[in-house]
Specification:
- This protein has a single domain, classed as Vaccinia Virus protein VP39 (Rossmann fold, 3-Layer(aba) Sandwich), CATH 3.40.50.
- The protein is built from seven helices and seven strands; from the N terminus they run αβαβαβαβαβααββ.
- Strands 3-2-1-4-5-7-6 form a seven-stranded mixed sheet, with helices on both faces.
- It is globular.
- The chain is an alpha/beta fold and 201 residues long.
- The protein binds S-adenosylmethionine.
- S-adenosylmethionine binds next to loops.
Amino acid sequence: MTNSKREIPFSQACENNKNPILAVFKELNISGDVLEIGHGTGQHALHFASNLDVTWQPADVKENNWMISQRELPSNILPALELEVQPHKTIKEQLGSKKYDFIFSANTLHIMSEEFAFKLCEEIHEACHSGTYLLFYGPFKFNGQFTSESNKRFDLHLKSQRPTMGIRNFEDLRDKLSQHFEHLSTIDMPANNNILVFKKL
Ligand SMILES: C[S@@+](CC[C@H](N)C(=O)[O-])C[C@H]1O[C@@H](n2cnc3c(N)ncnc32)[C@H](O)[C@@H]1O
């Protein structure tokens, strides 16, 4: 029987954006219990947990949890949870009743279908207490408009790979969140990305 490990994919985008995102976290004084939705390779989790006073809870779909599980992790990164935004299970059924101080998700809303992105927005309050920050990082449309030609091309590329993928519109996400969250700010980030900052009411 072999014990060989699979090679963890490397995301150059994560390397490029991790310090600009960390600067935003520091500005917001992020600390405490953090939930990351869709952690992917785990590069973000490692960088942020090593530079902030946090307990970092990664969560992703079952088939993508092997990447972070295979890493040497600092003690403030907890074993990854299985979380798949999907029609047959609520987020609370998957995460339980724990409330996090801060929830972060990067480059996930354009990968999951719009229906699932909206479901995430409608249900994520279950994992929050009053004052929890919710941050989405990635490319977004505003008033239905792309912020750049390259994002428009990226959207077409995504849809050619899988028709349900696509860059989401900020106002639609904000509307789905509005019952439980106030939108605090939209931060411009390098490479035509944004961070959408919400706070639980
Ligand atoms: C493009 S990767 C981004 C990974 C990482 N956050 C980053 O910025 O590099 C998209 C991530 O979204 C996750 N994802 C896609 N659909 C999902 C769903 N329905 N529920 C939860 N996570 C999902 C994938 O498993 C993957 O880890």
